[in-house]
Amino acid sequence: MVIYNLVCRKNHCFEGWFPSFEDYQKQAEKKLLSCPTCGSKKVEKVPHACAVHVKKREPALSPAEFKEMLIRVHHYVNENFENVGPRFAEEARQIHNGKAEERPIHGTASAEETKELAAEGIPVVALPKPELDS
Q1: What is the DSSP string of 29-95?
Q2: pTM for the full model?
Q3: Which of 1, 54, 79, 112 lies 20 to 30 A from 14 at CA?
Q4: More confident residue, 82 or 57
Q5: Is the pLDDT of residue 24 over 90?
Q6: What is the DSSP code (8-state) at residue 122?
Q7: Within its chain, how far is the Cα of 111 from the centroid?
Q8: How far apart are CA 83 and CA 104, in angstroms?
Q9: Rg (CA), the chain
Q10: What is the pLDDT averaged over residues 76-104?
């Protein structure tokens, strides 16, 4: 459901409720919209601030929960991504530029290499290593 602020040619302001933006467009194109005050069919959408509804913030993870989640992420990456080791930056560039087969990879890169990749528009994510008990 979308709600728009509308105004007619006589400056009567009112709300219009529509199932979707496309439904609003169809009704506007067919001149099916009318002012509830004066009946005018000349109706326009008024710019308005949008509202974003978000869920309440979830409580933060405990250190133990965070560690468990991080271990699971690392396990998933190790099982599903090719380890290219210290060639990560070079391999990521080749994949990005179409010079190497596109595939999920992981490896190591310096902070400088990571910054350079980001500056080149190559998406990378640095994952912290979980500290494991011995």
Answers
A1: HTT----TTT--S-EEEPP-------PPPPPPPPHHHHHHHHHHHHHHHHHHSEEEETTHHHHHHHH
A2: 0.52
A3: 54
A4: 82
A5: no
A6: -
A7: 25
A8: 9
A9: 26
A10: 93
